[in-house]
Design brief:
Length: about 300
């Protein structure tokens, strides 16, 4: 979906630039120096390929949703025309699995102002069974891993994320993500759905002096039970009504996270090709990194 603050010309140009990112060979300019630095003081067999080269091939794989052997074939084709070294797919796979996806260097243009976070989680499927066959014969829920994200409301970029197995509750990763973001930015407000409604989450926000905008479950008790901030939110909802509370908190901004997930799944796919959880974590993290790159265009 085209952002509201962009013209059609700018949006179309950003789509073109996505292709340039996926086929970027700028690493060739600095590859020799990077490899020298990587091998400086290294014990054992020296590196033959730079980290930037491996990451570029990883983005190519994720962006086009292709197999490792197909990536090897693309590099082989390019090597006929440019000075680029082909590598075997097993070496490529081993190097990609050593990547530690990170959003630490993402630029959100906050101008040193406090930021607003939206936290959410969604599943990425890991099975290839057809829906009809699965429903008719297997009769079990789809297997998935869960991607937890913290999104900057202004830039709509992901500034913290976690990848877990599907049975990990959403609220368990709210604290680690908020603490990580708070090391870099001041946070003034956090949005979340009812899955993040518990006393531990509210106590964390209270300790960090962050305004909560977390939807609270119906018929929640007004007893504090060690969490006065959550009790105050419940009393506020009862006073204003849920509609009034949503208007006061501008709760519609929580849908930014839904838009982010929709963009990732639509553009980069909601399936993970990897079979093992360790590889699935890397694949999901690379999707996040590539999404942020696209959002920077």
């Amino acid at each position: 979906m085209m952002p509201l603050n962009k013209s059609w010309h700018d949006y179309n140009e950003s789509l073109i630039e996505r292709g340039r990112i996926l086929m970027d060979i700028g690493f060739l300019k600095s590859q020799s120096n990077e490899i020298k630095k990587m091998n400086d003081g290294k014990v054992g067999a020296p590196f033959e390929y730079s980290h930037t080269y491996i990451q570029s091939l990883a983005f190519l794989k994720i962006g086009f949703k292709i197999a490792y052997r197909t990536v090897q074939g693309i590099v082989r084709g390019l090597s006929d025309y440019i000075r680029i070294e082909e590598m075997h797919f097993t070496h490529l796979r081993r190097r990609i699995l050593k990547i530690k996806p990170s959003v630490a260097s993402v630029n959100i243009d906050d101008d040193d102002n406090p930021i607003t976070l939206i936290v959410d989680a969604s599943g990425l499927t890991i099975t290839k069974k057809g829906d009809y066959i699965e429903q008719k014969w297997i009769r079990k829920r789809k297997e998935f891993v869960k991607l937890h994200i913290a999104v900057d409301a202004k830039s709509e970029k992901i500034i913290s994320f976690r990848v877990t197995k599907g049975n990990v509750h959403d609220s368990r990763k709210l604290g680690p993500m908020i603490r990580e973001v708070s090391e870099e930015y001041d946070i003034d407000k956090v949005y979340g759905d009812k899955a993040h409604d518990n006393r531990k989450s509210f106590n964390l926000l209270d300790d960090m002096n962050i305004e909560p905008a977390i939807s609270i479950r119906k018929n929640a008790s007004t007893e504090a039970r060690g969490c006065p901030l959550r009790r105050d939110e419940i009393l506020l909802i009862r006073k204003l009504g849920y509609g009034g509370w949503k208007q006061l908190k501008d709760a519609g901004r929580r849908w930014i996270a839904e838009i982010v997930f929709s963009s990732i799944k639509r553009v980069l796919g909601e399936d993970l090709l990897s079979k093992k959880f360790r590889a699935q974590k890397v694949e999901a993290g690379l999707k996040v990194m590539l999404y942020n790159k696209f959002m920077s265009l």
